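Fold this sequence, please.
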Amino acid sequence: MPLSLTEVLGFITGALCVWLLARQNIWTWPIGIGNNLFFLVLFLRTGLYADGVLQIIYVALAAYGWWTWLYRKTPAAELPVTHARAGTWLWLAPATGMTAAILWFTLARFTDSIVPGWDSLTTAISLAAIWGQCRKLLESWYLWILADLVYIPLYIYKGLRLTAALYVVFLVLCLMGLKAWREALRPVESLP
């Protein structure tokens, strides 16, 4: 599959978005919305339907993240980086698994997707990761790393080589983001 302008613009805005996210820069959210719109078009054209729908959800979550980073501040400072509480994992892990299962069933039954399981798994993990990023939970970086390790071969398989390369860049940026957020971690009570 030849490169398209949509894939190139998705690459540029995606790399910039994750780079800004690692630096806790609020501009990550509006640039991310642009990135989501480019990838929405690209993924729907290539039969990655769950990833396409995920981009619509990302737009809504980006608006939430933008609002949260702007207005959910402690009395003295910006929203701090924290750890997820154990209770968060008690509902987030099963919700992620259930989301993957429902998406897999839906894609396998109602679409012509040739990768419904992988498309569903990456989508579910990505939803959990972006939710965590909106709340500045350190563990969200681990979820992104896991998703990227699956996305890279998936996109190569689907012929989206530039997008696969972008996800290699994302993987490196996620490692950098994890390091930066660890350093920014404050001894503040974890958020729910």
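The chain has seven helices and no strands. The mean pLDDT is 89.
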